[in-house]
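Whiteboard transcription, Tuesday session. T.W. wrote the structure tokens on the left side:
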């Protein structure tokens, strides 16, 4: 009897100890919040994924190597869960913190699920009005939330900026960033820098004035706003930079806003204390309408570096002076330190829509190098010593329609690229395609609020001519993944995909892997090492993290209403759900041929 009692007591002690360890671990997770220091050191050991690009440099690189080229074939489902996403396209990269996955769906429905099981912790629907938003470009999308100091943040389609309690999903504050009912919307992933929530505007295809703003993350009070294009020159300019920029515009662009929305690209260098933001296309697209005597039209299609405390500009670099093709500079940046010509350079790397891969000095904005990462480029014949494009004769549509490669969809768009410091390569998901631009005469252009106002008709067919320079370019088309050497400015390897292959953003890992769509590739060679029947259409971007000593990968995939959150690990043991029938195109009827902004 005494022996049995001792055994029972021993078991109770063990059980209590285990319970205490579990409770302490849970309490520790509950107590820990994302701090400014955590964001600065987010690259860390890869345990969590707490900001959009994994780190301030936006590398989309995980230093975890438990899943690697040797065992990736054993990668299988741990769990998946339906998100019950409203109708629309899912574009948001999820985040993982404290054992919880956070994300945002079409129509800005936000959610949190247990990263170990997929069990829903909370769900919050902001009830964004459908009628007005559904007429705007380019669908009810959002690319991601931010986490900071116990809160989850997002910008919404109706122009609200919100902060929710990360534990229970309760609204803490809401601030109106836009004019209610206007054409400016919020679709970009938000970031937190030095206690400020950075929010970029969207809607340039409607003809709005672009800007990006900073809000106090605790109170929601606006700290500053940077307008990316000048307003009405008869009124005071908001800052000296805009007075200078106005000299590069002509006509009455301000009647239609001018464009330049900051709907995606952001990065931050804590050492230099510089925030980098990419700006978008002109509004209207057609420069003959918005700025009829030409001009560079600053700061369209530019990289702008500002001080995050004040929003004052340190430098800018314009990729497309006088932008007229929807060649935005809003595609994701990557910051890195590279040895170029025997010198260590702090650089910002960019692969925007126009098809050039740019390497700039991120401290000064100086152009270092640029080369096409697409094989067919018909609008430009190269870059001069300052990085200014040498436009092909006839590339600007003035009175006649013209076909241009790459097109408005871009050589590379919002889907993130990734950089591996181990291989020294940038992995770019891209597309070889064209757009035919048929200009609307300025005398016939009628601006209509709530509608797309590009000043361009989109029609194909053999009657639309290419530039003469096109004859020197190879005939290629379709999606690709290219491993790009940013120092030598040349490709290491390239994969071409047949039509219908799932796309999405890229994740690189220290395990020597590159994840894109439903596949994993060898980062050195491009060899496909793993594939899963994950998708019916396209996913977003993979993330990776560590839980209980085990590496996981998660991704949102499949269009609404069949969208699911998938989580994989080595020998996961789960059963993949069957593929649903493909839904009809969720895009708005009559939408222009450009991706969501």
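and on the right, the sequence the group agreed on:
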């Amino acid at each position: 009897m005494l022996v049995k009692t001792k055994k029972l007591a021993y078991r109770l002690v063990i059980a209590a100890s285990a319970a205490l360890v579990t409770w302490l671990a849970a309490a520790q997770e509950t107590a820990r919040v994302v701090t400014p220091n955590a964001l600065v050191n987010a690259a860390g050991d890869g345990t969590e994924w707490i900001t959009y690009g994994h780190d301030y440099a936006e590398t989309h690189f995980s230093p975890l190597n438990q899943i690697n080229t040797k065992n990736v074939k054993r990668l299988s489902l741990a769990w998946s869960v339906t998100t019950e996403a409203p109708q629309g396209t899912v574009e948001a990269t999820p985040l993982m913190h404290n054992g919880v996955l956070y994300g945002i769906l079409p129509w800005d429905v936000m959610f949190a699920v247990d990263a170990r099981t997929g069990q829903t912790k909370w769900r919050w629907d902001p009830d964004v009005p459908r009628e007005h938003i559904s007429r705007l470009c380019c669908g009810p999308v959002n690319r991601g939330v931010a986490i900071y100091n116990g809160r989850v943040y997002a910008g919404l389609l109706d122009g609200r900026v919100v902060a929710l309690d990360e534990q229970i999903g309760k609204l803490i504050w809401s601030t109106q960033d836009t004019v209610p009912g206007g054409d400016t919307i919020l679709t970009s992933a938000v970031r937190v820098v030095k206690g400020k929530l950075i929010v970029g505007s969207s809607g340039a295809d409607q003809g709005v004035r672009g800007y990006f703003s900073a809000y106090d993350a605790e109170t929601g009070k606006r700290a500053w706003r940077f307008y990316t294009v000048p307003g009405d020159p008869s009124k005071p300019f908001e800052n000296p930079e805009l007075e200078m920029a106005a000299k590069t515009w002509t006509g009455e662009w301000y009647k239609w806003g001018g464009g330049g929305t900051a709907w995606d690209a952001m990065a931050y260098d804590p050492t230099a204390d510089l925030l980098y933001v990419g700006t978008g296309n002109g509004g209207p697209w057609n420069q003959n309408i918005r700025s009829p005597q030409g001009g560079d039209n600053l700061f369209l299609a530019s990289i702008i570096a500002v001080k995050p405390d004040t929003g004052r500009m340190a430098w800018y670099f314009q990729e497309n002076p006088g932008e007229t093709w929807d060649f935005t500079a809003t595609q994701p940046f990557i910051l890195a330190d590279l040895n170029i010509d025997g010198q260590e350079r702090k650089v910002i790397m960019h692969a925007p829509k126009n098809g050039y891969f740019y390497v700039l000095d991120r401290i000064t904005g100086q152009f270092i190098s640029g080369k096409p990462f697409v094989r067919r480029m018909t609008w430009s014949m190269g870059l001069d010593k300052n990085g200014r494009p040498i436009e092909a004769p006839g590339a600007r549509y003035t009175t006649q329609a013209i076909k241009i490669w790459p097109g408005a969809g871009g050589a590379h768009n919002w889907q993130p690229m990734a950089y591996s410091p181990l291989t020294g390569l940038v992995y770019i998901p891209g597309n070889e395609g064209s757009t035919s631009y048929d200009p609307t005469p300025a005398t016939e252009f009628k601006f209509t609020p709530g509608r797309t106002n590009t000043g361009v008709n989109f029609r194909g067919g053999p009657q639309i001519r290419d530039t003469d320079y096109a004859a020197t370019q190879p005939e290629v088309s379709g999606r690709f993944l290219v491993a790009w050497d940013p120092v030598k400015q040349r490709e290491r390897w390239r994969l071409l995909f047949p039509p219908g292959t799932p796309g999405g953003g890229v994740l690189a890992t220290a395990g020597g892997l590159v994840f894109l769509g439903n596949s994993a590739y060898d980062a050195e060679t491009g060899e496909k090492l793993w594939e899963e029947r994950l998708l019916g259409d396209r996913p977003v971007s993979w993330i990776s993290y560590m839980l209980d000593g085990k590496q996981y990968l998660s991704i949102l995939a499949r269009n609404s209403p069949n969208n699911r959150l998938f989580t994989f690990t080595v020998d996961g043991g789960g059963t993949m759900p069957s593929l649903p029938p493909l839904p009809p195109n969720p895009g708005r009827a009559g939408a222009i041929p450009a991706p969501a902004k």
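Someone added at the bottom: The longest helix spans residues 2-31.
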